[in-house]
Every structure is written in C-alpha cells, then in structure tokens.
Amino acid sequence: MPEAQLEDWVTELLRAFELSGTRVDIDQVLSLAGVAAHTIVRPAAPLTTFLAGYAAGLAVGSGQSSEKPAMDSADALARSVLAKRSGSADNA
Length: 92
Hints:
The protein is mostly helical. It has one domain. It has 4 helices and no strands. The protein has helices at residues 3-16, 26-39, 44-61, 67-86. Helix 2 packs across helix 3. Residues 2-84 form the DUF6457 domain. InterPro entries: DUF6457.
C-alpha cells in the first residue's frame, strides 16, 4: 500500500475513533511490526503493534506521559522483549 494510502487510512481511522489530531508515526509502527514478524511469526506483527499502542494510550490517558514519549517507550520495550526472545540486541 503506497504511503499516501496509509496516511489516508490512518486519518480515516483516527477520525472514526474520534482521535483526530493524534500523531501516528507510520514508519515506526511498520518497523516494529516487521521486527515482530521476523522475530516471532508474521501474526505477531499486528498483536505487537496493538499492544504497544494500547500501552502507550494507557500511559497518555492516565497522565503518565505525553503521546510521543509514550509511544517511543512502548516501542522500545517491545523491541527489547523481541531482542531477548531472539537472543540478540539487534532488534533493540
């Protein structure tokens, strides 16, 4: 799916979830999905990105963090767990 289509899709989803104005780093999400898919199995990609996003959303919603630091932290933690699972630090 070309980048413009992904951006349109994210915008449409954000609007549907009443989250307009929320910034989504598509490249970061896709990168994490790729690491999960190659480290575990392909179906781990959506599960990993969902859980990272959910954790980030909870952190923001509870006032523990703002959006960007919360997503960066969730991304880093997921990559750390994936790196441990694969036995290397390359994914971190």
